[in-house]
Structure formats: C-alpha cells, structure tokens
C-alpha cells in the first residue's frame, strides 16, 4: 500500500511540474505590448480616489472669533469624524464668512457670518443642494483660506 501511495505522489508531482502557470495582476504590463492575449493589460486610467483634496487652501492667520474657537473645541470633544471637519473662510456677498464642513453623508455644511450667525447651508441634505438659502455659494465664494482642520 505504501508503494502505491508513493508512486501516485511521484506521478502527481511530475505531472504538475510540467504545467506552466502564469500569474498576473492588474498592474502587470502585457508581455508583448498588446492588450489581447493571455497577459493582463496594465491599467489604463489613473487612481480615481485622492486621499487629500486636489487643491489646498491658503491658511488663515487672522485671529479666530470666540464663537469659532468654541465650535472647534466642540468638534475636538467629539470623536474624530470621517471626513474630518474643515473650516474655511471666504468672501461672499461683500462679507467674510466661515464654512464648516458637514460631519457626514446627508448632513448640511454651514456658513456663518463673522459674528457666528448661521447664514445658510449651501450643500448636504438629501438632495446635496443644502437648504436653498444660498444656491450661488459655490459660484460666488472667493478668497478661500483654511482656518482650521481636525488634526487627529
């Protein structure tokens, strides 16, 4: 019985050793430069997910109003959000405004005046278009400055 098992194992090993197995992955370039054939072609597009925003806002070095410092403290007292909270300052309709990003999903982002009064919610919600009180915000905002972003 032992002789038969050894012979079967030897036969199986010999048969498998003669087969060529080619392993490729999506980043392996084609062997002959052509897309057709047994080789997997190299990817044809760039990565579509960026870990960081495409543009980085200039930092705001001015003093933060007390209400904004309090809002930052509230965010830091909560658990880290994904995406992280960012506060940007813009010029909008002749005044400086602060944009605070939404914590997640269908929630609204908020735009406040320099005294901390809510002006509008330009994006978020079920439609993604905010509360409708400043539908031109994206087009008319200017002079973007990064005031703060969660460092955690």
TrEMBL record:
Signal peptide from the UniProt entry: 1-17
Biased amino acid composition, Basic and acidic residues: 130-144
Keywords recorded for this protein, A-Z: Signal
DUF6970 domain mapped to chain residues: 74-150
InterPro entries from the UniProt entry: DUF6970
Biased composition (Polar residues): 23-48
Record carries keyword Isomerase: no
Family matches, as PROSITE patterns: PROKAR_LIPOPROTEIN (PS51257)
Pfam families: DUF6970
Annotated region (Disordered), positions in chain: 23-49, 123-152
Keyword Cell inner membrane: no
Protein name according to UniProt: DUF6970 domain-containing protein
């Amino acid at each position: 019985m032992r002789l038969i098992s050894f012979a079967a194992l030897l036969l199986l090993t010999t048969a498998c050793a003669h087969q060529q197995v080619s392993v490729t992955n999506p980043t392996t370039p084609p062997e002959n430069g052509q897309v057709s054939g047994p080789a997997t072609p190299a990817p044809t597009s760039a990565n579509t997910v960026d870990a960081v925003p495409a543009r980085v806002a200039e930092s705001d070095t001015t003093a933060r109003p007390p209400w904004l410092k309090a809002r930052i403290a509230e965010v830091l007292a909560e658990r880290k959000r994904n995406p992280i909270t960012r506060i940007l300052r813009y010029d909008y309709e002749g005044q400086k405004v602060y944009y605070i990003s939404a914590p997640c999903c269908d929630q609204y982002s908020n735009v406040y005046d320099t005294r901390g009064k809510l002006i509008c919610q330009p994006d978020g919600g079920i439609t993604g278009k905010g509360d409708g009180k400043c539908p031109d915000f994206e087009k008319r905002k200017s002079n973007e400055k990064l005031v703060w972003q969660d460092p955690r």
